[in-house]
Amino acid sequence: MPELPEVEVVRRGLASWVRGRTITGAEVLDPRSVRRHAPGPADLIGNLEGAVVADVVRRGKFLWLPLLESAPAHSGAADDVVPSFALMAHLGMSGQLLMEDSALPDEKHLKVRFTLSPARDSSGTEMPDELRFVDQRIFGGMFLTDLVPTPDGAPGGLSETGLPLVAAEAAHIARDPLDPAFSFDEFYRRLRLRRTGIKRALLDQGLISGVGNIYADESLWAARMHFARPTDTMRRADALRLVEAAREVMTRALAAGGTSFDSLYVNVNGASGYFSRSLNAYGREGLPCPRCEELGLHTLIRRDSFMNRSSYSCPVCQPRPRNGRW
Ligand SMILES: [Zn+2]
User: Fold this and answer.
1) How do residues 257-274 score in pLDDT, each as one tens digit?
2) Residue 279 pLDDT
3) TM segments (predicted)?
């Protein structure tokens, strides 16, 4: 399943390919991939044809394309036109967004095809004319959603234009640690109101978005914090250290092109997002803790069952609290 850094890699790639281009046609090859668009595939296609991709925005793992209903009448007036709706793209477990030339054969699991107006990149090379949504397991999908103003007036998420609009479907989720408008004060205030363990809080998209199981474990390891630490008594400095650790771990993963466990995951230009990861805790049960090892200690990473999944931690660096909440 793609985590936040992978989705950000997709967002950046996609933005460079599709921004400013007109969707000249759309084809739904499998209606299951647009099942969340209630009015049906024909309505989706009808609304997309002729629409212009104004931007590519991400908040947490939510990704959407704000759309203009049609190309602005005057080329110079593009900045004055505000997008009114968006195409939401849910990658699910195995969804891929591929830029391809229409001459290339369809992928086996091609679900939705978008044809784009011709465009050239900065070197003058013609860009591929199709955006394809390929999904093997059909947990992902696409649908149209309204854009609504952000309550704080800040950009809706990471984007190229910074418009203060958010997809209605993503308005309920909190900002993620890579979002410049993320408010630590707000996060800490709300964290203290919870009576839960810190990892549960980290995975709560309403409190902080985009932190999945892998990055939760890696952030907690980096911050030397046990996953069961109670949130209601957490000191401000500890919470800050954890958020900064999350930001750092994700920024590093982003620089490396994202990290994904799913070999099905392919980023927007078709290159695999999989890379040799440098994980310190996640998935390393029984292997030495790298930080302890540097100190000459031979401590093994342990695995605990947690929310039907696993939590990986170092018993020395991340001591279990007496009053922990699992
Ligand atoms: Zn350790």
Assistant:
1) 655 434 334 444 444 343
2) 86
3) none
The answer to whether 137 is annotated as binding is: yes
Is there a catalytic annotation at residue 2? yes
pLDDT digits (tens, 9 = 90+) for 167-216: 999 999 999 999 999 999 999 999 999 999 999 999 999 999 999 998 99
Tell me which residue range forms the domain holding 24: 4-170
Residues 143, 205, single domain; the answer is no
Instruction: Indicate the burial class of 270 (C-beta count within 10 angstroms; 0-12, 13-18, 19 or more).
Output: middle
Q: CB of 210 within 8 A of CB of 4?
A: yes
Ligand 1 centroid – CA 149 distance (Å): 45
Known binding residue 194? Answer is yes
Residue at which a domain ends, from 140, 170, 200: 170
Any domain includes 138: yes
Catalytic residue among 19, 61, 111, 132: 61
How far apart (Å, rounded) are the C-alpha atoms in residues 14 and 233? 42
Contact at 8 Å (CB) between 178 and 209? no
Active site residue 309: yes
**Chain centroid, CA 156 distance in Å:** 14
Shared-domain flag, residues 159 and 10: yes
Listed in sequence order, the residues at least 6 apart from 223 whose beta carbon sits closer than 8 Å to its beta carbon are 238, 241, 242, 244, 245
Q: Can you name the residues that pair with 320 across neighbouring β-strands?
A: none
322 occurs within a structural domain: no
Please tell me which residue in 2, 5, 41, 177 is annotated as part of the active site. Answer: 2
Taking the centre of ligand 1 as the mean of its atom positions, its distance from the CA of residue 279, in whole angstroms, is 13
Chain centroid to CA 110: 21
- Per annotation, catalytic residue among 32, 189, 309, 320: 309
Distance 314 CA to ligand 1 centre (A): 5
* pTM, to two decimals: 0.89
Query: Is 109 marked as a binding-site residue?
Result: yes
In angstroms, rounded to a whole number, what is the distance separating the alpha carbons of residues 191 and 194? 5
